[in-house]
Amino acid sequence: MQPPFLLFLGTAPDIGWAKTASGLAEWRADDCAGQYRMEGCLVDLGLPDMTFAEATAKGVRTLVIGIANDGGYIAPEWIPHITAALAAGLDAAAGLHQRLADHPEISKAAQAHGRTLHDLRRPQQTFKTGTGRKRSGRRMLMVGTDCAVGKKYTALAIDRELRRRGAASTFCPTGQTGIMITGRGIAIDSVVADFISGAAEWLSPDAAPDHWHVIEGQGALLHPAYAGVTLGLVHGSQPDALVICHEAGRREIQGYEGQYACPSLTDALAVHVAAARLTNPDARGIGISLNTSLLSEDDARAAIRDAEAELGLPACDPIRFGPAPIVDHLLDVFA
């Protein structure tokens, strides 16, 4: 997947649908040359809008499908745009469940124009079932009250802060956006269920005693659809520390409004810690990450104080205010 990138936003109605594109724009900004929006798109990443001809003229190499829709499918209305990008000289990359290479029109266009298709949800290796064997080193896992609450951004921010302080740390991506950002990792929800915990063990192997594997979470144990992948990831990660992530102000599970309320921070952390103690009896909650992007600064700081009061753990918005409170506590507890 060669930079520079043109980020495909399709007709995304809000930033939640474009989290792959927004993640690249945030964490690989220098490689993101522009955005491509179809009519009706309501997301603007602040990048230059480009046609495919303009993108190739400016040296762009890859069209990245920046949409994370429910089910991870290639929407029919995208196809003429993707094939036009291939015809214009761009490669195409996606992290969808439905693979570009498996789509007959897209595959045919790529072959006709000599372009490369990158499907990042296709693991390049096979995995064994989880062993539950205690591994050396330390592991921290991000968990959540819901999907799309900031688990990836939290892990990236904590990993960066640990390395800034001279600590040994590795960010472990478990989704397509993290893979696009770092060039490594596993889209854990593409792994056959029996092998999820084994894949998580592979992703965070034995390490030096003071080394931290900072593992991006997926789904949520109290989610009606995506708890399965979370459980395998929790068991295989064997975390010493868990950070509970939540979007401040979210009251209902996204996409299940009117059916399922978001659990409290207390309940969500407790169920994840209980699950983690199957493979690591010493697993513990270490902090709270709040996405406060929809709040004013005063309201954000109030929400952080409320979260700390609820759980008795340090809380922060790791993007807005930095992850120092969590990292301070982590290094103190595991000194």
UniProtKB/TrEMBL annotation:
<dbReference type="InterPro" id="IPR035086">
    <property type="entry name" value="DgcN-like_C"/>
</dbReference>
<dbReference type="Pfam" id="PF17396">
    <property type="entry name" value="DUF1611_N"/>
</dbReference>
<dbReference type="Pfam" id="PF07755">
    <property type="entry name" value="DUF1611"/>
</dbReference>
<dbReference type="InterPro" id="IPR011669">
    <property type="entry name" value="DgcN-like"/>
</dbReference>
<feature type="domain" description="D-glutamate N-acetyltransferase-like C-terminal">
    <location>
        <begin position="129"/>
        <end position="327"/>
    </location>
</feature>
<protein>
    <submittedName>
        <fullName>NAD-dependent epimerase/dehydratase family protein</fullName>
    </submittedName>
</protein>
<dbReference type="InterPro" id="IPR027417">
    <property type="entry name" value="P-loop_NTPase"/>
</dbReference>
<dbReference type="InterPro" id="IPR035402">
    <property type="entry name" value="DgcN-like_N"/>
</dbReference>
<feature type="domain" description="D-glutamate N-acetyltransferase-like N-terminal">
    <location>
        <begin position="45"/>
        <end position="123"/>
    </location>
</feature>
